[in-house]
Amino acid sequence: MLSSVCCMRLNTYGMVIGWLGVIFSILAVTLLSLGLAQANRAHISNLSVYLAVAVIHLLSSAMLVLGTVKKRHLLLLPWLTSSGVLLALNSIAQFFHWVYLDTSPSLLALPALLFSVAGFVLQWYLYNGIYSLYKQIQAKRYSASADFARQTEAPLEQTFQQPVIDEMLIK
């Protein structure tokens, strides 16, 4: 588990990633909507899929910001899920990209391969930062609820009062 990402505390990192996701998703939704309005039939299905992904990312990024502010770990799950799916799909695409570059005899393939590996490692690191934030909020939330439960529990001796029990035995 990480305690900080890019020299930022996890809460700050969650806010930065969430707001960047919201800003870029709004930009993507706007541009894709404009492109969809002017697209020919061949490109409509591709643009529609990209638009749907951008809207999902917009909603999950907004929930990431809200979950970080309110300290609710379950609000981070949509971002973790959607980003996890995209990361898995990117992993598969990277694998096929590496296979294609490995079969290429050119030395120009080496920088592309190294760049793709560096980007892949960075994506996993950034994802792990939000996952660490999720686990941190979850741990604090459950420890706080356990403390509250311990404080509200009455000792067994106080639960049953002796005079009431004595009256029941006399009858």
UniProtKB/TrEMBL annotation:
InterPro entries: DUF4728. The keyword Ribonucleoprotein does not apply. The keyword Transmembrane helix applies. Keywords: Membrane, Transmembrane, Transmembrane helix. The chain crosses the membrane at residues 12-37, 49-69, 76-100, 106-127. It comes from the Eukaryota. This is Uncharacterized protein. It comes from Drosophila kikkawai (Fruit fly).
